[in-house]
Design brief:
Elements (H helix, E strand, L loop, with lengths): L1 H29 L2 H6 L5 H17 L3 H26 L13 E2 L2 E2 L5
Antiparallel strand pairs: 1-2
Helix pairs in contact: 1-3, 1-4, 3-4
Length: 113
């Protein structure tokens, strides 16, 4: 009973790692090539290769060490590269969408009035 529960948990973990890697690969592919240079990150091709290898490893090679290395690359993409790409592309929280220079993260700042 415990062995089957552990196997189910591991399957769920590996599936989640695969889905994260696929999502990162799609997001890396959708970003513009010049945004990587503007954000001072590695090239788009670099991230497509790294994340593509991660997806392939998760699908084809049942080696936990390689899967964890791919997970680290995926996390770096989500935490460091993607926010920088969004910032230089004008998307996400860092972009200006018609707001005033006195806007804070939760709306306009009116100086306590």
């Amino acid at each position: 009973m415990l062995l089957t529960a552990f196997g189910g948990l591991m399957w769920l973990l590996f599936t989640a790692m695969l889905l994260l890697a696929v999502a990162a690969l799609v997001m890396a592919g959708l970003a513009r090539d010049d945004a990587y240079r503007a954000a001072n990150k590695q090239s788009k091709m670099f991230w497509l290769i790294i994340l593509g290898v991660t997806v392939a490893v998760n699908l084809l090679v049942p080696m936990l060490f390689l899967q964890i290395a791919g997970l680290i690359a995926t996390i770096v993409f989500f935490v460091d590269v993607r926010p920088a790409l969004q910032q230089v592309s004008g998307g996400g929280r860092g972009g200006r969408r018609g707001g005033s220079s006195s806007d804070g993260p939760y709306g306009p700042y009116n100086g306590g009035r």
